[in-house]
Amino acid sequence: MTTASINDFKLLNIKCLKYFNLFSKSNNFHTLPSNEKLMERFGFYFFILEALCDEKDIDRLSDFITDTEYNAHLINQRFNDHGIDAVYIDDDIKEIKLFNFKFRESFKPGQAQSSNDAFVSTKLVNCILNENADGLEGKLKGLVYQAIQRLNSNDVWKMTLYMVSNEAIPIDSDETSISQLKIFYDMEVSSICLPDIKSMMSIRPAPVKAELIIDNDALLSYSESSISTSKSYIVRLNAADIIRITCKNPELRNDYHCERMDVLANERLDYGVLFDNVRGFVQKSKYNQAIEKSLKDDPSMFFMYNNGMTIVTKNIKAEQVNANKKVRITIDDFQVLNGGQTLRTLHNFNAQKESHITDYLAKSEVLVRIFNTSNNEVVNKIAEFTNSQNSISSVDLKSLSTLQIHLEQLLDEHDIIYSRKNGDTGINDEKNYRYKISMEQFGQILFAIQGNPDKSSNQKQHIFGKYYDEIFSEENFNILDAPNIIESYFLVKNTYDTSSESIQKIEQKIFYVLYMHNVRPDISYEYCISMLESALTQFKNGMSGLTDARKMIQVGFKEILNEQLHQV
After folding, report:
1. What is the per-residue pLDDT for 227?
2. Mean pLDDT by 10 residues, the chain (568 residues)
3. pLDDT for position 496
4. Spatial separation of the C-alpha atoms in residues 256 and 40, rounded to whole Å
5. Does residue 199 contact residue 248 with C-beta atoms inside 8 Å?
6. HEC string of 250-273?
7. What does the buried/exposed string (b/e) look like for 211-236 if buried means 16 or more CB atoms within 10 Å of the residue's CB?
8. Staple partner for 121: which of 83, 291, 316, 535, CB 3.0–4.6 Å?
């Protein structure tokens, strides 16, 4: 397993503090944490949940944090969390994710996660399985009811307990007590600790360089035109060589004539080669298991079973050697844009047993496309199109588009983080950012402003799909308006956050207010809020007991509101 150092511990603390500061700039704590360590601990929750739940909206993540101390500081509610610090219900993959966090204030190299923490959490697991929320309060009670509802549905759901800490050594998942816990509760137990977390931190890596020797019959060259001197290559590459060129050891990466494969048995993945990969941190999945199975069962056929990998490099050099029978290739500053799961799984498989490198990996081959380009727009398109056939969300694919990258750069100039992927804390680590907003949030805001506040929440999944070209078209969206749109969003959000307790605070209300102000820019945001709340109170539509959230998705509600807007 990858090890972690005190420097990894310090870098994580810096990142966690940045998350806390970003959240506190747009949210009011009832009692602000009195020391930096507590701020780091709360920021740790945001960072981990964003990475493991694929949810970039840190304001929304706060709704899933059930930790007693956190909610006491944020909303002055000190309810027992029963050993579960966060609950996230993922309707896309049908998984109930329970989190037990441990944030240590000092680094101890030999400190391991405690299996006792897993058993502390079983009280809440029992509440869910027994369909009994008696004794639970506040946010936790509502989330448990939601979990019970999902388990009682006709869909197949899984439940996972994530044991997360900034300690150096994980729980032994094969330990008898943990194994019994998995069997008794029919629940996965996943351990995440500092060595895993270091791979999740978005820190721009130093350029990675490697060298290869390829047989002529295992290589196909490609150039954009007959007069181009810039060549790209399609290569049939040995899996052991893939381990070598992506490992942390620069000497081995450049040792193209490495003959003793067993020296690679203890080498680990340099996550720097995956910095630009479309996927965030990926835990072990059914795809990883399938890759491992095909490696073990039939390594010689792995080439046929696997989709391969795509590498982009800013500089490539190729020369004929060995009487023109082989080609020596040097790739400098390269990234694996597609095939990240394959790469991770190859390294994980290699780490399981010393003999795997010689018994299986050295007998397996992978199709690798190596594109030579320093043009960022071309790189983004390669990443988008080579990933488009896989199970990747439309949001992740669009995050690679030139427009979204330009948006990120523009907003960075206005001290706003435009989060295109999990773990984003800004282009410049030294900058003091004012806000963080995710691509999904911004898409919802634009969709609302352009006339669809009633659809901006319940059709969120289509914003970066079938509606994308219309929403982000030049006719409907001027990129230079983006900073002011985001400023307005946080202004309205702050107004709602500081309003009376009797007003339901729902994000869709912010979308409606922005839409109303766009229709009638002569009306203040405060008046728009007052007008919206009044309309919600009066709207009945023949149905009693409708929540504000349900009212706002009714077509009739927006029509009535439009009439009132034009009468003011």
Report:
1. 41
2. 79 91 90 94 95 85 95 94 94 91 91 81 88 90 94 91 91 71 82 85 74 89 58 89 92 85 87 70 57 84 86 88 88 88 89 91 91 68 57 70 86 91 78 90 95 88 90 92 94 82 78 94 91 88 76 87 86
3. 84
4. 44
5. no
6. HHHHCCCCCCCHHHHCCCCECHHH
7. bbebeeeebeeeeeeeeeeebbbbbb
8. 83
pLDDT at position 285 is 54
- Are the C-beta atoms of 65 and 57 separated by less than 8 Å? no
Q: Is domain 6-198 classified as CATH 1.10.150?
A: no
User: Any idea how long the chain is?
Assistant: 568
Three-state helix/strand/coil letters over 208-229: CEEEEEEEHHHEEEEECCCCCC
Question: Residues 218, 271, 114, 120: what is their CA dihedral angle, to the nearest 10 degrees?
Answer: -100
Q: Are 245 and 270 in contact (CB under 8 A)?
A: no
The alpha carbon dihedral of 503, 509, 513, 519 has a sign of: negative
Q: How crowded is the C-beta side of 500, counted as CA atoms within 13 Å?
A: 5
Do residues 439 and 486 make contact, with C-beta atoms less than 8 angstroms apart? no
Predicted pLDDT at 119:
79
Separation CA 541–CA 557 (nearest Å): 8
User: Can you give the pLDDT at residue 57?
Assistant: 84
156 vs 504: CA distance, rounded Å? 33
Contact 74, 20 (CB under 8 A): no
CB 354 within 8 A of CB 265: yes
Phi (first) and psi of residue 71, to 5 degrees: -70, -25
CA–CA separation, 45 vs 58, rounded Å?
10
Q: Are strands 86-90 and 219-223 parallel, antiparallel or unpaired?
A: unpaired
Give the pLDDT score at 467: 92
Q: Residues near 547 by Cβ (< 8 Å), separated by ≥ 6? A: 504
SS3 of the chain: helix, strand, coil, percent, to 5 = 45, 15, 35
- Contact call for residues 412 and 424 (beta carbons, < 8 A): no
The structure tokens listed for 400 are: 């690679």
Burial letters for 351-385: b for 16+ Cβ neighbours within 10 Å, e otherwise? Answer: beeeebbeebbbebbbbbbbbbbeeeeebbebbbe
**Distance of alpha carbon 292 from alpha carbon 216, whole angstroms:** 29
- Whether residue 74 contacts residue 136, with contact meaning beta carbons closer than 8 Å, is answered with no
Residue reference for tokens 């002569």: 522
The one-character DSSP state at 340 is H
Residue 342 φ/ψ, nearest 5 degrees: -60, -45
Rounded CA separation 47/42 (Å): 9
CB-based contact 401:379 (threshold 8 Å): no
State the Cα–Cα distance between residues 383 and 397, nearest whole angstrom.
8
Q: φ, ψ for residue 539 (rounded to 5)?
A: -75, 125
In the chain, domain spans: 6-198, 209-390, 396-567
Q: What is the 3-state secondary structure (H, E, C) of 318-333?
A: EEEECCCCEEEEEEEE
Q: Which tokens is 289 given?
A: 């298991």
